[in-house]
Amino acid sequence: MIHIRSFQFIAILVAFMILTVLVHFRYFSSIDVLVFNAFGSVSPDQYLLYSFVIISSFGEVINMIFLAIVFTIIRRTRKMGMILMITIMTIAILVSYMKPLIAQPKPPESQRIPNLPEGFQLESDSLLTEARNFSYPSNHTAIITAFAYIVATILRLKRKKYAYLLWILPPMLMVSNLFLGLNYVTDLIGGLLLGLIISITMSNVLKLEVPFVMNKFKNTN
Length: 221
Fold this sequence. Notes:
single chain, 0% strand
């Protein structure tokens, strides 16, 4: 687990702050448009687009909250589930207030999302309606990154190889969102960094690696 006083955490925090300032003053606008158009020029088939939609839905708040509840119900993963739920809600609220402040306009309405089954639609990237016209940082990228960090931290204690596999999820979601035209590349990088910052902070403050023991709250005879 990365500690909040470590060089790695400070580097991530500084990188996010610098990127956020530069995005706010539109220093990366030309790069964003260039990357956005490059992905837009590729024509994946309909089945691949459906795959991108499914992958993009992994980072939705409601899906991650449901997963956190499942972890909370299971005794062995209860503490991890509680920390994951707190982290997800913290990110979702923070992003909703950050987006209007940074005020990076979201990409043009995507024409690449295929016709979805009735009743299925991609969740908005922001909880507040006031933030839905802006795109930095990406809420879904931040949440899937936080999920990968928190769950991988616990998995590393017993099954290290599976922990590394979880880190496939954030780049998969980022690439899917680029192909679907849902985000600019700086939105995704900002979301990745923010997800790391919040998940590392919560994991340290709430002592993720310390087992949750109910017995210590009971009176001993």
